[in-house]
Amino acid sequence: MTTANNQVTVMGAGLVGSLLSLYLAKNNYQVAVYERRNDLRQNYVEYGRSINLALSDRGWKALEGVGIAEEIRKVAIPMYGRMMHDVQGQLSYQPYGKENQAIYSVSRGGLNVALMNLVDQNPNIDLHFNQQCLHVDLVANELEMLNTVTQEKLKIPANRLFGTDGAYSMVRYALQKTERYEFSQTYLEYGYKELRIAPGENNQWMLEKNALHIWPRGSYMMIALPNLDGSFTCTLFFPYEGDVSFNSLQTEADILDFFKKIFPDALPLMPDLVSDFFENPTGSLVTIKCFPWSLEDKVVLLGDAAHAIVPFYGQGMNAGFEDCTELNQLLEQHSGDWQTIFKKFQELRKPNTDAMAELAVQNFIEMRDLVADPRFLLRKKIESK
Ligand code: FAD
């Protein structure tokens, strides 16, 4: 039965919003989900985001809670360690943990589609595409929405609003205008560009399939994660400005000379390097912190809307998924007492996600630099015994 009390609204059907909707529906709430984009199952295009993601334990646990982990495991590629490539093309390997411990490479689109299919099948969830939130009125508990197809604007009530609308969240923007609101947004002086290592004959992987590949080069690096079709998605993390930077690579010859010198073993495996380099956008790397994440019993933020972090720890989505697991536990413990649920949720999660934000920035230094240092390799070898 639908009552005003069990109706909730989720803004944003990305990875976290889709998973959260499933958890809310499981707790017998009637969920209305609004998403700015069109249905990505019809025409999947992800602009400026990674094609694949590293999924780790905290992510798996959240997927298990809605019974989807086994389906995703079938299309996930375990990466048992990191494989370093030096400038001569020599390889060295560090396992991530004990035998059989791994993080998993999964397709961002595949994961989002699998979650969305479950959302669609759930009778407690109504999913609305092409609906962009323009404004959240925290006093009247009202949303101003734009239908991005018809350009029609509509005001809708929302008593219980979950903001899962990503790093540039409109829901958070409304909170930012409340008194003494804490907010910070910090960019690295680095951007990232996605490139591709092509599959070999018969869709064979041209590098070790079960590893996360790193080309550490001191002040910058390239990484690659395996895909199911035999390709690898590479990400070049590179300064925006300077002698060696996105700014310094302007022509086809600049790019090819640079890769020949710096990534010589990768270059022959990247037939579309030049077009990928020119055509793929350069993404920025932002850390967003804010507090509080909630207002009374009305609104709460989860995922990147509450805590966007740089990707070097591979934990942004995983942390957002963990938000869902933790919120679900609080829903079970304090059913219906929304103010307590929201308050406890932010108290529980904020210190963890702040720590992750710091670790993520530190891990950039480790990945681009220290992993190539023999003393670091020795320490890791001892630690993994
Ligand atoms: P989003 O994925 O941003 O989803 C937000 C949704 O809200 C979108 O569907 C959007 O269309 C919708 N929306 C936005 N505004 C509005 C509006 N006004 N009205 C309606 N809808 C709206 N994380 C990992 O765990 N592992 C990794 O390996 C990893 N690699 C990464 C690599 C890169 C290069 C980057 C940039 C990030 C990486 N991340 C990784 C982080 C991960 O991508 C994010 O943490 C994750 O996507 C956050 O999910 P979300 O649902 O909170 O936000």
From TrEMBL:
Cofactor: FAD
UniProt cross-references to Pfam families, sorted A to Z: FAD_binding_3
E.C. code: 1.14.13.9
Keyword Cell inner membrane attributed: no
Keywords annotated in UniProt: FAD, Flavoprotein, Monooxygenase, NADP, Oxidoreductase, Pyridine nucleotide biosynthesis
Catalytic activity line of the entry: L-kynurenine + NADPH + O2 + H(+) = 3-hydroxy-L-kynurenine + NADP(+) + H2O
GO BP term, example: quinolinate biosynthetic process
Pathway the protein acts in: Cofactor biosynthesis; NAD(+) biosynthesis; quinolinate from L-kynurenine: step 1/3
Domain FAD-binding, residue spans: 7-185, 296-333
One GO MF term: FAD binding
Superkingdom, natural source: Bacteria
Task performed by this protein: Catalyzes the hydroxylation of L-kynurenine (L-Kyn) to form 3-hydroxy-L-kynurenine (L-3OHKyn). Required for synthesis of quinolinic acid.
Family in the record: Belongs to the aromatic-ring hydroxylase family. KMO subfamily.
Entry protein name: Kynurenine 3-monooxygenase
